[in-house]
Design goal:
The protein contains 4 helices and 6 strands, in the order βββββαβααα. It is of the alpha+beta class. Strands 1, 2, 3, 4, 5 and 6 form a 6-stranded antiparallel beta sheet that branches. The longest helix is centred in the last third of the chain and has 37 residues.
Length: about 160
């Protein structure tokens, strides 16, 4: 895979790496600095640092970017793996390709379940804030959340 690595990329502070809905062009492995990941509504989802990947999901599944990536306040640098060369390397090693795709699918499902669970917890907080008469609703939502957590844990097992 070392021959797939094409370039070292350097971004200035707060420079956009890619934006939501842009076409995937490859994967980045952060060498230095940080990269902020933003949702469509501008919400900061995560800050990535040294040795972390970005751009892998959209590149692997050939989907448009689902988040915006922006260099942190001190900039960032990364190793860039070109999409075409990365795909060619994976096509040579079909076992590795299957492992990577399965891992990404599990991560995507886990993320979907986390969003769903967060929504349930927000509903619980709303019910709690509504007062004591809402305790029946809270019990029902906690039960649903508990079942979702069990499903999420079980889905990440081999």
């Amino acid at each position: 895979m070392a021959d797939v690595i094409k370039d070292k990329v350097v971004w200035q502070a707060n420079e956009f790496i890619y934006k939501i809905d842009s076409e995937p062009n490859g994967i980045f492995i952060i060498l230095d600095g940080s990269v902020d990941i933003y949702a469509r509504d501008g919400l900061l989802l995560n800050t990535l640092g040294e040795k972390e990947l970005l751009g892998e999901t959209s590149t692997i599944f050939n989907n448009k970017r689902s988040v915006t990536a922006q260099a942190g306040s001190r900039g960032a640098s990364a190793v860039y793996l070109n999409k075409k060369d990365f795909e060619a390397a994976l096509n040579i090693n079909t076992s590795l390709k299957a492992i990577i795709e399965k891992t990404q699918l599990r991560l995507m499902e886990s993320n979907r379940q986390s969003v769903e669970l967060s929504s349930l917890l927000n509903k619980i907080m709303t019910s709690i804030n509504a007062g004591e008469t809402a305790m029946k609703d809270v019990k029902k939502l906690v039960s649903i959340a508990s079942k979702k957590i069990t499903l999420m844990v079980n889905s990440n097992l081999d």
